[in-house]
Amino acid sequence: MEKNVAQIALFAALIAALGLVPPITLPFGIPVTAQSMGVMLTGAILGARRGFLSVMLFLLLVAIGLPLLSGGRGGLAAFTAPTSGFLIAFPVAAYVTGLFVEHIALRPIALRAALGAVLGGIVVMYAFGIIGMSIGLGKSIPECLLLVTAFLPGDLLKAGVTGMLVSAIAKARPQSVAWSLNV
Amino acid sequence: MISLTSPVKTRAHNWPAGLKLLGLAATTTLLFLIPGIRFQAAALVSVLALYTIPGRHFLHHGLRQLRVIWPFVALLLVWHAIAGNWPEGIRTALRMTSAVAIANLVTMTTSLGDMTDLLHRLFRPLRRTGLPFGIIEIAIPLVIRFTPVLIGKGRLLLDAWRARSPRRANWHIVLPMALLALDDADHLAEALRARGGLNPRDED
After folding, report:
1. Between the N and C ends of chain A, which has fewer C-beta atoms within 10 Å?
2. Residue spans per domain, chain B
C-alpha cells in the first residue's frame, strides 16, 4: 500500500521533472522534451494500473494550476488548447503501455517495452491528439494526421530509447520491474 | 512550488471554485455551439476585457500564459489564407484563443488550496465506489513535495555530465533520474510505514 502510493507519487514527480529539466537531445540531434517519454516509462515500469494512476495524478496537478507541463505550462488552459487531446491521452497511453508489457511475453525486455511504448505512446497518443486537434482547429482527421507526422520520427526514437531505459532499469532494480521476471 | 495562480488578488479569487469551473464548462460549450464570427469576436473581446480589470501586472502575466497558442493561430490563418476561406480561419482562431484565455483566467483566480478542497469534495462520493481515489488524493502533497527534489537531482546530474563531457547531456540522464525516483519511492514508503502507514478509506 505505502509502496504503491510512493511509487505512483514519485513517477508523477518524475514526469514533471522530465518536462522541466532542459530539453534532451535524441540521437541525430533531434531536440525533444522528455515528458512524453516519462509517460511511456511510467506505464512500462509501474504497469497498467499503477501507471494509469500515476499519470492521472500528474494531470490532476496540472489541472489544479501547477506549471508541470514541459516549458512550465499548466493550468486549465492546457485542457482547452488544441493540443489537449495529447494530454488527455497521457493516462491511457501509460495504461496501454503497461498492459502490453505485462501480457505480451516477448524477449528481449527492451523490445517488449519499446513496442509497448509505440502502442501506448504513439498509437494511442496520436489517436486522441488528432481527434482533439480536429475539434479545436476545425480540420479534418487526415489533415491533422498530416500536421503531426513531423513528430513521428522523434516519437519513434523516444519509444526506442524507452525500451533501452526499461531494460537497463530492469537490470539495476529487478524487483521494481515485476513483469520482467516472468517470461 | 509556484502555482499559476496570480499573486494579484481579484474579486474572482473569493468565488467558489466549483462555480468557476461550471462557468468555464458552460462558456466553452457555448463557444462551440454558436459559430457566428461576430459572437466569437465579442467573446474574445469580453474575455480580454476581464484580463484588463485587475491591472497591468495581471494582464501581462495572463497574456504570457497564452503564448502557446500563437503558433496555432498563425497556422490557421496561413492555412485558410492559402485555401481561400479566411473567415473560417479567423473564426476558429478566435474560438480557440477565447477557450484557452477563459480557462487560464479560472486558473489565475483560483488558489491551489481552493482547487484541492474542490477535488476532495468531488472525490468524496467516488471514494465509496472502492476505486483508488483516496490514493490519488493522498499522493497530491507527495508529488508537490518531491517534484522540486527530483528537478534538483536532475540539475545535479546535468552539471556532473557537463563537467566530464564536451558533448551535450542527452537522454542518458533519464536513466539515473528514473532509478532515483524508484529509490526515493522505497525510502518514502518505509518512512510512511514507520509513521503509522496510510489508509485512504478512513478519511472524512
Report:
1. C
2. 11-110, 131-202
3-state secondary structure of A28: helix
Q: B1, B3, B4, B104: best mutation site toward chain A, by most A Cβ within 10 Å?
A: B4
pLDDT digits (tens, 9 = 90+) for B61-120: 888 888 888 888 888 889 888 888 888 889 989 999 999 999 999 999 998 889 988 988
Q: For position B135, what pLDDT does the model report?
A: 81
CATH classification at residue A111: 1.10.1760.20
Q: Count up the domains in chain A and report the number.
A: 1
Please indicate whether, in this complex, the C-beta atoms of A64 and B116 are within 8 angstroms of each other: yes
ipTM of the complex: 0.89
| Long-range contacts of residues B7-16, Cβ cutoff 8 Å, at least 24 apart | B8/B54, B8/B55, B8/B57, B8/B58, B8/B61, B10/B53, B10/B54, B10/B58, B10/B109, B12/B105, B12/B109, B13/B109, B13/B110, B13/B111, B15/B109, B16/B114
For B95-107, what is each residue's pLDDT tens digit? 999 999 999 999 9
